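Working notes for the structural subgroup meeting. M.R. asked for a predicted model of this chain before we commit to crystallization trials. I am recording the input and output together here so anyone reviewing the notebook later can reproduce the run.

Input as submitted:
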Amino acid sequence: MALLHGTYVLTVGLVLGVPLAPMLGVWAAVASLIPQIGGALAGAPFVLLGFTESATTGVICLIAFVLYLNFENHILSPIIVGEAVDLSAPTTMVGAIVGASVAGVPGALVAVPLLGAGKAIYLEATGQSRSKHRNSRSIVDRVRRLVRRDAKSPPRAESAPR
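Returned structure, recorded in C-alpha coordinate form:
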Protein backbone atom coordinates (compact mmCIF):
# COMPACT_ATOMS: atom_id res chain seq x y z
CA MET A 1 0.00 0.00 0.00
CA ALA A 2 2.89 2.35 0.71
CA LEU A 3 4.26 1.78 -2.78
CA LEU A 4 0.84 2.52 -4.26
CA HIS A 5 0.64 5.73 -2.25
CA GLY A 6 4.09 6.84 -3.36
CA THR A 7 3.31 6.04 -7.00
CA TYR A 8 0.06 8.00 -6.81
CA VAL A 9 1.78 11.08 -5.36
CA LEU A 10 4.57 10.81 -7.93
CA THR A 11 2.13 10.51 -10.83
CA VAL A 12 -0.14 13.35 -9.74
CA GLY A 13 2.88 15.51 -8.91
CA LEU A 14 4.45 14.96 -12.33
CA VAL A 15 1.18 15.58 -14.16
CA LEU A 16 0.55 18.83 -12.27
CA GLY A 17 4.18 19.98 -12.38
CA VAL A 18 4.64 20.02 -8.61
CA PRO A 19 8.25 20.76 -7.68
CA LEU A 20 10.24 17.84 -6.27
CA ALA A 21 7.58 15.32 -7.35
CA PRO A 22 9.94 12.29 -7.31
CA MET A 23 11.11 13.14 -3.81
CA LEU A 24 7.51 13.65 -2.68
CA GLY A 25 6.62 10.22 -4.07
CA VAL A 26 9.41 8.58 -2.08
CA TRP A 27 8.42 10.57 1.02
CA ALA A 28 4.77 9.48 0.62
CA ALA A 29 5.80 5.83 0.34
CA VAL A 30 7.98 6.03 3.46
CA ALA A 31 5.53 8.11 5.50
CA SER A 32 2.67 5.74 4.61
CA LEU A 33 4.39 3.05 6.61
CA ILE A 34 3.54 4.99 9.78
CA PRO A 35 0.10 3.83 10.95
CA GLN A 36 -2.75 6.31 11.37
CA ILE A 37 -0.78 9.54 10.79
CA GLY A 38 1.39 8.55 7.82
CA GLY A 39 -1.14 9.76 5.30
CA ALA A 40 -1.23 13.27 6.75
CA LEU A 41 2.56 13.36 6.99
CA ALA A 42 2.81 12.38 3.34
CA GLY A 43 0.16 14.82 2.14
CA ALA A 44 1.21 18.01 3.86
CA PRO A 45 4.41 18.61 1.84
CA PHE A 46 2.69 17.49 -1.37
CA VAL A 47 -0.10 20.04 -0.97
CA LEU A 48 2.23 22.82 0.23
CA LEU A 49 4.57 22.38 -2.73
CA GLY A 50 1.53 22.30 -5.00
CA PHE A 51 0.60 25.75 -3.73
CA THR A 52 4.10 27.01 -4.59
CA GLU A 53 3.31 26.23 -8.24
CA SER A 54 -0.07 28.01 -8.21
CA ALA A 55 -3.23 28.25 -6.12
CA THR A 56 -5.09 26.09 -8.63
CA THR A 57 -2.40 23.41 -8.54
CA GLY A 58 -2.44 23.47 -4.74
CA VAL A 59 -6.20 23.03 -4.60
CA ILE A 60 -6.05 20.21 -7.16
CA CYS A 61 -3.29 18.53 -5.09
CA LEU A 62 -5.43 18.87 -1.97
CA ILE A 63 -8.50 17.39 -3.66
CA ALA A 64 -6.49 14.57 -5.25
CA PHE A 65 -4.86 13.77 -1.93
CA VAL A 66 -8.13 13.76 0.02
CA LEU A 67 -9.73 11.51 -2.61
CA TYR A 68 -6.81 9.06 -2.41
CA LEU A 69 -6.86 8.98 1.38
CA ASN A 70 -10.59 8.30 1.41
CA PHE A 71 -10.12 5.47 -1.09
CA GLU A 72 -7.24 3.98 0.91
CA ASN A 73 -8.81 4.40 4.35
CA HIS A 74 -12.34 3.28 3.51
CA ILE A 75 -11.84 0.69 0.79
CA LEU A 76 -8.29 -0.53 0.36
CA SER A 77 -7.07 -0.71 3.96
CA PRO A 78 -10.06 -2.59 5.41
CA ILE A 79 -9.79 -5.21 2.65
CA ILE A 80 -6.03 -5.70 2.98
CA VAL A 81 -5.94 -5.53 6.78
CA GLY A 82 -8.97 -7.81 6.99
CA GLU A 83 -7.21 -10.38 4.81
CA ALA A 84 -4.08 -10.17 6.95
CA VAL A 85 -5.88 -10.81 10.25
CA ASP A 86 -8.71 -12.93 8.80
CA LEU A 87 -11.46 -10.45 9.69
CA SER A 88 -14.11 -8.78 7.57
CA ALA A 89 -13.68 -5.17 6.49
CA PRO A 90 -16.51 -3.84 8.71
CA THR A 91 -15.01 -5.65 11.70
CA THR A 92 -11.63 -4.01 11.16
CA MET A 93 -13.21 -0.57 10.81
CA VAL A 94 -15.35 -0.93 13.92
CA GLY A 95 -12.38 -2.36 15.84
CA ALA A 96 -10.19 0.61 14.91
CA ILE A 97 -12.94 3.07 15.85
CA VAL A 98 -13.55 1.39 19.22
CA GLY A 99 -9.81 1.17 19.88
CA ALA A 100 -9.40 4.87 19.12
CA SER A 101 -12.35 5.73 21.35
CA VAL A 102 -10.95 3.73 24.25
CA ALA A 103 -7.25 4.52 24.05
CA GLY A 104 -6.67 7.08 21.31
CA VAL A 105 -4.03 6.44 18.66
CA PRO A 106 -2.36 3.54 20.52
CA GLY A 107 -5.76 1.89 20.90
CA ALA A 108 -6.47 2.24 17.20
CA LEU A 109 -3.08 0.71 16.40
CA VAL A 110 -3.56 -2.42 18.50
CA ALA A 111 -7.32 -2.98 18.22
CA VAL A 112 -7.39 -4.88 14.92
CA PRO A 113 -4.45 -7.20 15.72
CA LEU A 114 -6.08 -7.92 19.09
CA LEU A 115 -9.35 -8.79 17.37
CA GLY A 116 -7.49 -11.12 14.98
CA ALA A 117 -5.67 -12.77 17.88
CA GLY A 118 -8.93 -13.12 19.80
CA LYS A 119 -10.57 -14.81 16.84
CA ALA A 120 -7.63 -17.20 16.43
CA ILE A 121 -7.74 -18.08 20.14
CA TYR A 122 -11.50 -18.65 19.96
CA LEU A 123 -11.17 -20.92 16.93
CA GLU A 124 -8.40 -22.92 18.64
CA ALA A 125 -10.38 -23.20 21.88
CA THR A 126 -13.48 -24.47 20.09
CA GLY A 127 -11.49 -27.01 18.09
CA GLN A 128 -12.01 -25.35 14.73
CA SER A 129 -9.03 -24.86 12.50
CA ARG A 130 -8.28 -21.49 10.96
CA SER A 131 -7.97 -23.13 7.56
CA LYS A 132 -11.64 -24.13 7.66
CA HIS A 133 -12.64 -20.61 8.53
CA ARG A 134 -10.12 -18.78 6.42
CA ASN A 135 -11.24 -17.80 2.96
CA SER A 136 -8.19 -18.75 0.92
CA ARG A 137 -9.36 -17.03 -2.24
CA SER A 138 -7.61 -13.82 -3.14
CA ILE A 139 -9.41 -10.55 -3.67
CA VAL A 140 -9.02 -10.94 -7.43
CA ASP A 141 -10.64 -14.39 -7.27
CA ARG A 142 -13.56 -12.97 -5.30
CA VAL A 143 -14.14 -10.22 -7.86
CA ARG A 144 -13.95 -12.75 -10.71
CA ARG A 145 -16.48 -14.94 -8.93
CA LEU A 146 -18.86 -12.01 -8.47
CA VAL A 147 -18.55 -11.06 -12.14
CA ARG A 148 -19.15 -14.65 -13.25
CA ARG A 149 -22.16 -14.93 -10.95
CA ASP A 150 -23.71 -11.84 -12.54
CA ALA A 151 -22.97 -13.13 -16.05
CA LYS A 152 -24.42 -16.56 -15.28
CA SER A 153 -27.55 -15.36 -13.53
CA PRO A 154 -30.57 -16.98 -15.16
CA PRO A 155 -32.93 -14.77 -17.13
CA ARG A 156 -36.12 -13.84 -15.39
CA ALA A 157 -39.00 -16.17 -16.04
CA GLU A 158 -41.71 -14.55 -18.06
CA SER A 159 -45.23 -14.81 -16.76
CA ALA A 160 -47.53 -17.24 -18.48
CA PRO A 161 -50.16 -15.73 -20.78
CA ARG A 162 -53.61 -15.48 -19.28
